[in-house]
Write a structure and sequence with these properties.
It is a single chain. By secondary structure, the protein is of the alpha/beta class. It has one domain: 3-Layer(aba) Sandwich (Rossmann fold). The protein is built from 6 helices and 12 strands. A 7-stranded mixed β-sheet has the order 2-1-3-4-12-11-10. Helix 1 links the parallel strand 1 and strand 2. The chain starts with 15 loop residues before the first strand and ends with a helix. The N terminus is likely disordered. Bound molecules: glutamine (GLN). The site of glutamine (GLN) has 11 residues, from helix 5.
Length: 205
Amino acid sequence: MPNGAGDTSTTTGLRVGVLALQGAFEAHQERLIEIGVDAPLIRTPLDLETVDAVVLPGGESTTMSRLLTTSGLFDALEDRFAEGMPVFGTCAGMILCAADVLDGRSDQRGFDLIDLTVRRNGYGRQLESFESDINVAGLDEPFHAVFIRAPFVERIGDDVEILASLDGVAVLVRNQRCTVAAFHPELTNDVRLHEIFVSSLKTSH
Ligand code: GLN
């Protein structure tokens, strides 16, 4: 496990925790380790204490919301976010970060970190899962994006920067502290989006 002080594999000195209650967390951890980041899995409030930032992975946002509450992590994360801790949310993680969620469960909770309205599973049944090469601001070559029951961005606030769109719909956006993708950037071997997120931490570190 790439955990703890003295881990010689760490080259950036950054610790980015990966929420590991449910969903596609392992591949995120692998991508982060590949780029020299210490990437502990986060399952309890204690795990959060030493991280500089977190990844909220894809999975099922309703289940994650429930497990976040029962583990005590919802409140612990909310406190860290209030202090300005950066976050990279992907797919279900995007839903957890968005200001407004359509077609969610009535008891589903979120962190309200970025001014977006997203519709759960908004690409429709026939497009449950699809892949597309998208152009990302700052990258020379397209990024192969894997969408799985992805959230559809229906509204974007003024302070939100669009890094990539697909057919006119934003799929990768950020504000100062929160970067969110509608797709799964961890499922290909391409680490460039993790690098974009991690380099934003270096400038604010
Ligand atoms: N549809 C899922 C949700 O509502 C998200 C899908 C995913 O993360 N791949 O949480």
